[in-house]
Amino acid sequence: MSRPAPTPIYTLRGAGGPLNTLHFSCHGGDTPLLYSASGKGAIHIWNLNTRRAERIVEGHSGNSIIWVSTLQAAHTLISQGRDMQVCLWDLSEGRSEVVDSVWTGSVGFCQCSVLETSPGNQLLAFAGQQTEEIKIIELPSKTPVCTLVPDAKVGMVMCIKLWQPDSGPGPLLLAGYEDGSLLLWDVTQRSELSRAKAHPEPVMCLTFDPERLRGISGSSEKTLSSWMLDRQNNLQLQDDVTLVNAGVSQLCIRGDGKLLASAGWDHRVRVFGWKKLKPLAVLQYHTDMVLSVAFSDHQDPRQRLLAAGSKDQRVSLWSIYNEGADTG
């Protein structure tokens, strides 16, 4: 007998707008939290024990918020809005105030990427005012580090990912562009290391596994493209995954490197084994495009969750493949 189709263990309602981005914070303190940000400029901080919004933070002048994250420094939230601002929030002791902001000048949908370089210090990468440029600054000082502009015409920057390699200097940055290209940048040298043409359409999203030096990207078409870095930091295209329906908003790899989730324009979340890209499950609940997916960072593997946020203004939470299942 085939397994019954999975259902959400619960859903969160009341966000009041399309759910563009999700971020878990479950490893510190007693209360596991999920941050969601909407197209109406609201950030909901959901208490996963009570399954209710503990707090609602309004920002970015009501403009759509496209990215949220937390910094290691306690109670510091960072958000990016379509008002061309990145805001740093102090959420300690019941506060919800913007303590600093960065003007990006970008009107696109490219989400920022943040990398902790030392305790209390981060690098922040974001799409700049010019179509193809990526700017990187240090936080909290806001000192400019570099501006990365490709030599060839690749169109608008669509998605970026900062990461720190285990060996050699760093950090490095992966970027997907409007013409379907992926570029790997050396931030320190401000130079392009390699490129690959991963898609015929714009790269809508990418995610990267620094331990395995392997990544995957999606676009508006029916194909996910997987790729890897060799020892010389050359991008090498690997297998493609053909989807039933076109369009992927976001991709996410679980922290243990076993699962990959995709947010589909067809209202579905698809789950694959990350090792061999074996299809494992199709999660059907939402009534509109799924815009975001995130795996929780619980320390206990049995508590791990997958969250999906949709244009239908709901967040679904799922518990899947937590007990050593063969994910392939």
Automatic annotation (TrEMBL):
Protein name, as recorded: Guanine nucleotide binding protein (G protein), beta polypeptide 1-like
Signal sequence extent: none
Keyword Secreted: no
Pfam families noted in UniProt: WD40
Keywords (A to Z) from UniProt: Repeat, WD repeat
WD repeat coordinates: 196-237, 283-320
